[in-house]
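Worked example 3 (structure in, sequence out).
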């Protein structure tokens, strides 16, 4: 599935760190920052999550909700949230279907090994559920501010 800016973002239904099942459509009327990351507790993912944590109130001020998605199970998400005081939901995409729908389940290489995994990516979805912006192969440094500025200036 290829994503097109201005068209409906793929719907998903995933278990969330609050014990509920969450759908994209649950957030109609809000801007959604849907960020995909490879793995809880790893250095880059921790930095990114803490950056979103530190800017959480600013996103709320723009009527935006932050949702993090990885293929980690809920119990690992809960530990990650507790350890770093994350104020937003983490979603468990254990079968990586949502990652596939968003085109972020890709072949990765690390130290000469190839494997399938999540490519760090962020999607901004507007109040009507349409894709407003995407970043793929995200570099963590400065990214959260870039996402915030996009919403502030465009939505």
């Amino acid at each position: 599935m290829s994503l097109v800016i201005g068209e409906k973002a793929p719907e998903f239904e995933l278990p969330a760190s609050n014990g509920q099942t969450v759908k994209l459509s649950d957030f109609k009327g809000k801007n959604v920052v849907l960020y995909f990351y490879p793995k809880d507790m790893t250095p880059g993912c921790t930095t990114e999550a803490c950056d979103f944590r530190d800017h959480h109130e600013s996103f709320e001020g723009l009527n935006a909700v932050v949702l993090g998605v990885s293929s980690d199970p809920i119990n690992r998400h809960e530990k990650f949230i507790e350890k770093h005081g994350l104020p937003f939901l983490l979603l468990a995409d254990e079968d990586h279907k949502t990652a596939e729908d968003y085109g972020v389940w890709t072949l990765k290489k690390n130290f000469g090994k190839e494997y399938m995994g999540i490519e760090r990516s962020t999607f901004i979805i507007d109040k009507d559920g349409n894709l407003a912006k995407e970043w793929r192969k995200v570099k963590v440094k400065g990214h959260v501010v870039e996402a915030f500025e996009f919403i502030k200036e465009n939505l």
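Notes: Residues 28-154 form a domain with the Glutaredoxin fold (CATH 3.40.30.10). The first strand starts at residue 13 and ends at 15.
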